[in-house]
Amino acid sequence: MTAPVTAPKIVSQAEWIAAHRAHLAQEKAFTRQRDALAAARRALPWTRVEKDYRFQTPNGPATLADLFQGRSQLIVYHFMMGPGDPHRCPGCSFLCDHIDGADQHLRHHDVSLVVVSRAPLAEIAPFKARMGWRFDWVSSDGSDFNVDHQVSFSDEQIETGTAVYNFAPLRSRSTELPGLTVFIKDGAGDIFRTFQVRSRGGDPLIGAYHYLDLTPNGRNETGRGNLSDWVRLHDEYEESGGRGHCCGA
User: Fold this and answer.
1) pTM of the predicted protein model
2) Count of structural domains, the chain
3) Residue 183 φ/ψ, nearest 5 degrees
4) Do the domain assignments include residue 86?
5) Which residues does residue 185 pair with via DSSP β-bridges, in sequence order?
6) How confident is the model at residue 245 (pLDDT cuts 50, 70, 90)?
7) Residues pairing with 74 in the sheet
8) pLDDT averaged over the chain?
């Protein structure tokens, strides 16, 4: 068991209630700020998707429009897995462990969610089966989708310093990084990109973190801006005693 990060202050019941009542005011203020931020996000401008992207799915080739599956909104999670890369990102996997529960509700709210990687389906399918995930996961191999959405980078981009990630120059030498992009399709069939998050912008989708934020020891992060060292692929917790690493950017 990990020791508490700070020594607890033991107080009377009355003092405990007073302290928690004061903190509740902060929690409520944060909730109002979060609601305002969500409203501002929805009010952001859109940009039209002009390119005809193609994907490989278990059911055959598909367009970006096909990924909507008849719904008007689409969330794409960019899982950092390039062709031939044996590494299976614990951070992307940690987030994806939370998708299936939400996905069954999103589909009833006019939202499709699809995971996309550059790796071919032959490399994606065994790992998806190993993890027991049910969500849709397709390959963008052979298209510009990942590069255009600034989650995959060429060696030349990295060497010349021209790679951009999260609206800023790339600060790592990774050729694959995670992110999430949101699209909407109008009645005429035109597709627009409405929002994107990169780096730690995906944290709100990781429910386990929010459970941990309620506990005295929190997330047990190192403070380096990376994923918590203790996170593993969910079938490796009993096997691994070392420290993990992931996709800090």
Assistant:
1) 0.89
2) 1
3) -130, 160
4) yes
5) 191
6) very low
7) 112, 183
8) 91
When computed from its CA atoms, the radius of gyration of the chain, rounded to whole angstroms, is 20
User: Is there a domain that residue 66 lies in?
Assistant: yes
Tokens linked to 130: 């190993």
**CATH number of the CATH domain containing 112:** 3.40.30.10
SS in 3 state form for the chain?
CCCCCCCCCCCCHHHHHHHHHHHHHHHHHHHHHHHHHHHHHHCCCCEECCCCCEEEECCEEEEHHHHCCCCCEEEEEECCCCCCCCCCCHHHHHHHCCHHHHHHHHHHHCEEEEEEECCCHHHHHHHHHHHCCCCEEEECCCCCHHHHCCCECCHHHHHHCCCEECCEECCCCCCECCEEEEEEECCCCCEEEEEEEEHHHHHHHCHHHHHHCCCCCCCCCCCCCCCCCCCCCCCCCCCCCCCCCCCCC
Q: Collect contacts of 101-106 with beta carbons under 8 A, ≥24 apart.
A: 102/205, 103/134, 103/135, 106/75
Site of tokens 């995906």: 202
Query: Per-residue pLDDT tens for 180-205?
Result: 999 999 999 999 999 999 988 888 99
Token output for 46: 């859109």
Side-chain-side CA neighbours of residue 71 (13 Å): 17
List the strands of the sheet with 47-48, edge to edge.
47-48, 191-198, 179-185, 73-78, 111-117, 136-139, 54-57, 60-63
pLDDT confidence band for 230 (50 / 70 / 90) = confident
Residue 15 lies in a domain: no
Range of the domain at 132: 48-204
- Whether the CB-CB separation of 152 and 247 falls below 8 Å is answered with no
